[in-house]
Predict the 3D structure of the following.
Amino acid sequence: MEEIPAYDPCGEGPHVYVRLTREGETTASLRRRLADSLGLSPDQVGYAGLKDKHARSTQTFSLLVEDLDKTVKVELDGVTVESPPVRHRNKLKPGHLRGNRFTLALRNMDCPPAEAKERLEAIARACEPTGWPNYFGPQRQGTHGDNWLQGLAMLRGRGGGGKKKPWLRKLLLSAWQSERFDSWLAARLGAGAFDALLAGDVAKKTDTGGLFDVEDPDAELPRLRRHDIVFTGPMFGFKMRAPAHDSPAAAAEDELLEEAELPPTALKRCRLPGTRRPARLHPGDLTLSPGPRGETLTVSFSLPKGAYATTVMREFMKTPA
């Protein structure tokens, strides 16, 4: 996995950007090691996104080194420095990335790699007109798959939310939002409305990111099919932009929220602002190639921030997640 930066460092400022590759270590662990090795506090080390512990991951960290004459040298066991450190004006914060590029090797397939390549190419062609469903999947749900239930208990005023650490509270509440989004998306697919617009849909312009209400689904459908816009689903919160009142899109989302049986002020009490998430996903630079010895098939593609490689692979592998 390789992080795609949102911007390049400008060459001046109190923060030093360094691009590192490692395997078998979480972002949080590497952040602590970086801080310790340079005499910094963890808060002085920034990053744009969390990476999988088990993947070989390349990402950028920012280091607050206000002494502009100080040379920063990173030397850590199991870590490769990909490029010389460069200064920048601001700290890296979560979300300061365009996306990630993934390269995966498929092994133990039920057919030769060349045949598997043909199968996956056919699936990719079938998915291209509409895109892939932008599921979260199990990533946020923990070992037992119940993080969302713990988040729901917190929203209902139970589960000891006040005693949990802030990062854990945020994770569990996010898991509940993710589960509700995935349920909404599954219902949309089940209703045969994945390649359609509903009156009241909150759509997003793919070039500018602007949101707007769909008033005339038939008129907007050509833009959807050109990938100029995408309809969005709910990440419930007290500030979330809701579909137009009394519209078909609003009815679907209202039903999901009502199922949660939350107290009227639950979302605001738990400081859950909410947002909208695109329902469809289009992987970039998708390539399929047999491995060097003909035993594997390499799949490579890029995704925007917030999207998961498992979403793409579940369509290829036909697995639940």
